[in-house]
Write a structure and sequence with these properties.
- With 205 residues, the protein is of the alpha/beta class.
- It is built from nine helices and seven strands, in the order βααααβαββαβαβαβα.
- It has a seven-stranded mixed beta sheet with strand order 4-3-2-1-5-6-7, with helices on both faces.
- α3 runs parallel beside α5.
- The longest helix has 15 residues.
- The mean pLDDT is 94.
- The chain binds magnesium ion.
Length: 205
């Protein structure tokens, strides 16, 4: 049922799925891998640190993929996404990597995903390639240039460009340390609240 031309852009980790790197930290016992964009705002700094740890600990891509394959979506995420996809076009905008995301996207029935790529040599992650810096914000602006209205939701620092650029942006389960820095963005703590924000936005179209 599509009544209005709008696109919903959603962050993936922390909104629909667990944080991949935290899961890897838990499975491997390497505490330093727990840091996410919630802790370190500079994505390149965060990724350089992660790659150094992988190298030091001899963790391969296939080992990490195995961990990711064992993860479930967050409770209620699938039915939330199904409801949303019945009402609007949905694009997942994530700063994860294609090589990581597939098993999770598959569990969501393959929604559209825009993300980045890893550079891999002999199963070792040697580097990464951002498709574009600040891709989330650029994607929202590109959709708006096509005359779509955009509703966006995310949970972290790397979402704020997208949330502020969107016609309406909302936090979903963002930590207070992030949310309080952006008082202009509404904060939601359940899929029901997020759907309500989206429906309120739809009313304005
Ligand atoms: Mg996130």
């Amino acid at each position: 049922m599509f009544t209005k031309q709008c696109v919903v852009t959603l962050d993936m980790e922390g909104v629909l799925t667990p944080e991949i790197w935290i899961a890897v930290a838990e499975k491997t016992g390497i505490e330093e891998l727990r840091l996410t964009t919630r802790d370190i705002q500079d994505y390149d700094e965060l990724m350089r640190g992660r790659l150094q740890i992988l190298e030091r600990e001899k963790l391969t891509l296939s080992m990490i993929q195995k961990v990711i394959g064992s993860l479930s979506l967050l409770d209620g995420a699938k039915s939330f996404l199904d409801t949303l996809r019945d009402q609007a076009q949905v694009i997942i905008l994530s700063d994860t990597f294609q090589e990581f995301a597939y098993p999770l996207i598959k569990k969501m029935d393959m929604p559209t995903l825009f993300c980045h790529n890893l550079m891999v040599e002999n199963d070792h992650i040697v580097s990464y390639r951002l498709r574009q810096k600040d891709q989330k914000r650029h994607a929202v602006e590109a959709l708006q240039s096509l005359h779509f209205k955009v509703f966006a939701a995310g949970d972290s620092y790397n979402d704020t460009g997208m949330l502020l650029a969107a016609d309406k942006g909302a936090f979903f389960c963002a930590p207070d340390s992030v949310a309080t820095q952006f008082p202009e963005l509404p904060t939601t703590y359940s899929y029901e609240e997020l759907l309500n924000e989206f429906h309120n936005f739809q009313e304005t179209l």
